[in-house]
Amino acid sequence: MKKVAVMIVDTKTGVSQFGVIEEPVQEGFEIENALRHFGVDRGHVIFESENNDKISTGYVEETTKVVSVVVV
Predict the structure, then answer these.
(1) What pLDDT, in 10s, does the model give residues 3-55?
(2) Distance between CA atoms of residues 16 and 23, nearest Å
(3) Which residues are registered as beta bridge partners of 69?
(4) Burial class for 10, CB neighbours closer than 10 Å (0-12, 13-18, 19+)
(5) CA 43, CA 53: separation in Å to the nearest integer?
(6) Pick from 3, 25, 27, 54: most CB atoms within 10 A?
(7) How many Å apart are CA 48 and CA 42, to the nearest integer?
């Protein structure tokens, strides 16, 4: 079971969300599962930077939200 830390910041409003999700899910779906807890569909996230499946940063398309994900 992997821990997934997620931070989402709306750059327009300044509202931010942060949490660490650790629950059993099918391997390879940890990030999708964690993002869903924040109401974000991974299919709408454009990741601009991914580092060894551990650190990912990007934005939610058609919004002003920025996403950072760290998998431990």
Answers:
(1) 999 999 999 999 999 999 999 999 999 999 999 999 999 999 999 987 777 99
(2) 22
(3) 6, 56
(4) middle
(5) 16
(6) 25
(7) 13
Given the DSSP bridges, would you call strands 65-71 and 55-60 parallel, antiparallel or unpaired? antiparallel
Which amino acid type is present at position 47?
A: F
Tokens 């974000």 locate to 40
Query: What is the Cα–Cα distance from 58 to 49, expressed in whole angstroms?
Result: 7
CA dihedral 29, 35, 38, 40 (to 10 degrees): -110
Report the amino acid identity of residue 61. E
